[in-house]
Amino acid sequence: MKIIITEAQYKSLTEDNLREFLFSFWDNQKKQGQEPFLDDILYHVTDVRKDSREDYQTIRPIWYEYNGGYKKILQDVRDKIEHGEFHFKGDSNLDMVIFVDEVYSYGLKEQGGMVDIICRVVGGTIDGYVHNEETDMMDMVPNMDIFEQYSLLEYDTQDLEQFLTDETYNFFSNLLKDRLIPIHVDLMVR
After folding, report:
1. Contact 126, 93 (CB under 8 A)
2. Please, what's the b/e burial string for 101-114 (b: 16 or more CB within 10 A of its CB; e: otherwise)?
3. pLDDT for residue 2
4. Residue 158: Cβ within 10 Å count
5. Given pLDDT bands bounded at 50, 70 and 90, which one contains residue 146?
6. Are 25 and 46 in contact (CB under 8 A)?
7. pLDDT for 10
8. Neighbours of 92 (CB within 10 A)
């Protein structure tokens, strides 16, 4: 006997199977005393590449559903970091304090969107570089004030801004890794 189903029915059937599989996987992690997470094994089994479009359209919505919905996860992120001051260290002897002004989401809400973290540098130090007029070379100055380094660079600040943004992104990626929500960092240095 042949059974004929529509494409929509097939898609619903495979989504239900995937949802059932993922929910049981995460429930099993809980039973083992672990905090549920998106394990690399899941991506291997489902043949979905992590952080791909398919991941954000297929796997992540089920993850959000399992954890109470995207809005709940977004609110958890807001509660954890919005209007907070954070001190962290990074490469190039970076020791920085930032303040998070706002956390908001954009994109497809039903699938989860990108979380934008708007923040600004409050203070800190970095191994900076200053022009030595005698040698016409750049000399490294350890523990230079970030704002002083920024002002000395005048119009050539893009590399410093990108470095600080990348370090801030790494900090928040690590801090929010249990939320498994895609983030973007907008950092103001001035």
Report:
1. yes
2. eebebeeeeeebbe
3. 47
4. 9
5. very high
6. no
7. 47
8. 14
